[in-house]
Amino acid sequence: MTSVTQPSNVELYLEITNLLNQEAYYLDNGMYKEWLELLTDDLNYLMPLRETVEGVGVNNIAKDTQFFNETKTALVTRVNRLYTKSAWVENPATRQRHFISNIMIEGTDHPNEYKVTSYFHFMRNRGSHHEIEQLFGQRHDLIRKTDSGWKIAKRTIIPDQAVLTTMNLSMFL
């Protein structure tokens, strides 16, 4: 009889960190179709608006307004458009980097799902322009172990900026 063992905390951390690093690599190198394979079919991809409110400890994340609230189907449509000539926002293609850090993992009631919090710093440059666009903040993911490996089942992106200074939100975070 074969027994199933849970990976040690170090193994789990390395496996999930590897998934997030692989994701960043795919996005930074324009491998968007490969990136889609890291997402579950029931994915929810959300970026709520950050509000500026007074007070200490006050929730400043809007519950009713989002920059985007997408499913995997919607992301597939966005990715497929990038491979056409009508994706003018990425012509010429941007040069971008995703920096992921402060990865923390918490178990859930489901043995193959984990809540993962990480910080992100996204930077991109367009054409020959010297301006660099930046976004940074925190991501709250639900990461699931599937038969085909680790996948992202849910992502909530919380930008630190209340006013985004990017020209558009064509990037994936």
How does this structure look, described?
A six-stranded mixed β-sheet has the order 2-1-6-5-4-3. 21% of the residues lie in helices and 43% in strands. The protein starts with 8 loop residues before the first helix and ends in a 14-residue tail after the last strand. The radius of gyration is 17 Å and the shape is globular. By secondary structure, it is an alpha+beta fold. The longest helix is centred in the first third of the chain and has 20 residues.
Topology:
Layout: H1 9-28, H2 32-36, E1 39-50, E2 61-71, H3 72-82, E3 95-107, E4 113-125, E5 133-146, E6 149-159
Parallel strand pairs: 1-6
Antiparallel strand pairs: 1-2, 3-4, 4-5, 5-6
Gross morphology is: globular
Instruction: Report, as a whole number of angstroms, the end-to-end distance.
Output: 43 Å
**Helical residue percent?**
10-25%
How many helix segments?
3
N-to-C SSE string, H for helix and E for strand: HHEEHEEEE
